[in-house]
Request: fold
Amino acid sequence: MILAAGAEAVIDLVDDVVVKHRIEKKYRLSDIDLKLRQERTRSEAKIMSAARRLGVSTPIIYDLNTVDIVMEYIYGTQLKHVIDTTLVRKAGEIVGILHRGGIIHGDLTTSNMLYCKDRIYFIDFGLSFFDTSTEARGVDVHVFFQTLKSSHEKPEELKTAFMNGYRMTLAEADQVFQRVREIEKRGRYT
Amino acid sequence: MKGNYVLGIEGTAWNLSAAIVDEKNVVIEKTATYKPRAGGIHPREAAQHHASHITALLKNVLCYASENNITLDAVAFAQGPGLGPCLRITATAARTISLSCNIPLIGVNHCIAHIEVGIWKTEAEDPVTLYVSGANSQVLAYRGKKYRIFGETMDIGIGNALDKFARAAGLEHPGGPKIEKLARSATHYVQLPYTVKGMDFSFSGLTTACMESLKNGELLPDVCYSFQETAFAMLVEVTERAVAHTGKKEVLLAGGVGANKRLVSMLQIMCDERGIDFYAPEKRYMGDNGTMIAHLGYLQYKAGDTTPIEKSAVNPNFRPDEVTITWKHPQHRQ
Reply:
């Protein structure tokens, strides 16, 4: 069963495991295309494992083929369906942990967080990379705030709760929030 | 019923061009192109070129108008982005016409003019636009009364990247068409860095890597081919991401680099695979032209969106997302 199909990959559920397959792009030279898909698959798996080592819940990776990641299926609910201030605060703590560990998720939305057995799992590290700069952290948080604004009621309340959680785990949190305000003024990434 | 006529003056970089349009047609367009004697575009020389040609150019266009009993309703000019010295020449000319003919002045954004002329001259209504020229490389789409930038270059524009490499390889300005031609006789792909970060791309490292490959003995046609394949794949990838993100069903190509046939074919393949429509206007509306300024000026004029003289200063870094869209547009249905 196809769970999702994005610009870059198809997420398939096969016998209770998830297979993330990076799609071939015919517009790209096959030399470039295959190398790119391999590199990105490897990098995504590496970052997922690094996140787990930091104590962040992510699906367990079972297998890695050239352009496929085979991983655990999380029987959870997307955070967007169950969101409240307690959960979003918890999400803030987790993002703080990722950032402290040098990981930028790259696509922080309430669809990429799954609530399952009192834990929040982070999924889709397809756009993730290692970076400790305030700019990268700021863009990451900004993207999340945009999701709160566009798809949830009372975004300000949720935003405050997230910020409180983020401050708990990242010492430079306020520097990042300052940058988020600057990024908002640039009017991009919306 | 008498129609409205708007004069548009473009002169943000190498091309000086003036046109008059009405609602549906280009009445006249005249162009004077600056060609550097050697090397690339020199901002001061380009401005001197514009200054020495603008009077004759405008006289030509305005005489045609009066001979055909056309009265201008407004004069539009590209307020930016572009080379400061060049922008000031056309802005001064536009202000002069506005004051002496007593018609409204309209400052327009050059990037948005590229998008709007594309929508005007094709069947596109609400596209994701890939705008690729010398200085600019952006992926834009309409949302909430603005053209938002979804992705853009982190350093130089794709056109400048191609030109820079072409100069290093001893090819004459403009380098893009020569690189495209040479690429056709390539025999293999040379490994080059592919730089897409999130929704942004970068061409500076790629350009340097191409120069290095050449020094290391790779043949020019192979490097030209590999440069195009790599750089264009980056542009198409981000365009596709913006399509997936916005859910839009059309892609529009704009800007001078849009003349490249390989880029066109890559975009076409991507759009076919996604089952969406691809549009590219004819070449004369793709590169910088006076018509696009006149057309956007026309749209703004109809919306009452004019520019008082005191707010008509040029802005070399004028970003398209600074503009609130006032004119009637198919996109407003959403």
